[in-house]
Write a structure and sequence with these properties.
Elements: E1 11-17, H1 24-32, E2 39-44, H2 53-57, E3 65-69, H3 79-89, E4 94-99, E5 102-104, H4 106-116, E6 132-143, E7 146-147, E8 156-163, E9 167-170, E10 176-179, E11 183-196, H5 199-214, H6 221-241, H7 249-278
């Protein structure tokens, strides 16, 4: 029987970095030497365009690494636009997105490599017919060095792997991946998300994101009612209905902070539109 020649599709890992995180170097090191990685693109979204991430964080002159600057003020940040611009820069067949606070576990690394090998067109892995052009992985938040298994992020999947020309992102904040021209499959493994090293950092982060979200909202009587009732209801929903209490005190903190996020979005919406109407 004739042995099939293994085919490894080319892939670019795109790493977004808008903050100088201690994890950044570890994230880059975890993918740069993978056999299935052709290139690593570092997307620097700092305001200070003199900061070269390739020089600051990564061993210089690595053949796989390229860096790009997308200087953006935080208050005008458009996550979908930045991701779409990054996709336009790649020259490989496939790409994989990671943020600077995300690590692939070993199972995810193996499943991606296997997917991109001989049956990387998705025909063998797809269960509904047709080739897969994108794949999602489970993402697990880590808080105080332990995973959150329940609550709002307990069963979260993100589309991060795709063929070029088959994925684009929409919406400036909490961007959504839109796949076209094929199917999306789920790969084994987990993206470990270490976004909140402390409660203070968590609150600072949701405050920034809430302001960006508020800029997309309109103020009306429905928003006013949501301001009053939704934040406390969200805390109860995450903690009890989504079993956040099973994560212990971490689940309690997470529920309260996400309740604050719900509150801040509506307060900021009121302030933005009130200031606009009075200016």
């Amino acid at each position: 029987m004739e042995n099939k020649k293994e085919i490894m599709h080319t892939l670019t890992v795109i790493i977004l970095c808008h903050e100088d995180t201690p994890l950044f170097r570890k994230v880059v090191d975890s993918v740069v030497n993978q056999s299935w990685v052709t290139e690593v693109h570092l997307i620097d979204t700092h305001d200070d365009t003199n900061n070269d991430l390739e020089t600051r964080f990564v061993k210089p002159k690595h053949a796989k690494i390229k860096s790009f600057e997308v200087p953006t003020k935080w208050e005008n940040f458009d996550f979908a636009q930045v991701r779409n611009q990054a996709i336009a820069q790649i020259e490989t067949t496939w790409f994989l997105f990671l943020d600077s606070d995300e690590l692939l576990d070993e199972v995810a690394q193996e499943s991606i490599g296997q997917f991109l090998s001989e049956d990387g067109d998705g025909s063998k892995n797809d269960h509904v017919g047709g080739a897969a052009v994108a794949a999602q992985l489970q993402r697990t938040d880590y808080f105080h060095n332990k995973p959150l298994r329940y609550g709002e992020t307990g069963n979260c999947f993100k589309i991060r792997l795709s063929k070029k020309h088959h994925l684009q992102f929409v919406r400036p904040i909490h961007e959504t991946a839109v796949v076209s021209g094929g199917n999306t499959i789920t790969l084994a493994g987990t993206i470990k998300h270490y976004s909140h090293p402390s409660t203070k950092a968590f609150i600072d982060s949701v405050t920034r994101y809430a302001y960006l979200e508020a800029k997309l909202r309109t103020w009306n009587w429905v928003t006013c009612l949501n301001l009053i009732f939704l934040p406390p209801l969200k805390v109860l929903y995450i903690f009890f209905v989504q079993f956040g209490f099973l994560d212990g005190y971490r689940g309690l903190i997470y529920a309260y902070v996400m309740g604050l996020h719900s509150l801040f979005v509506r307060v900021f919406t009121y302030e933005i539109h009130t200031h606009h109407n009075h200016s």
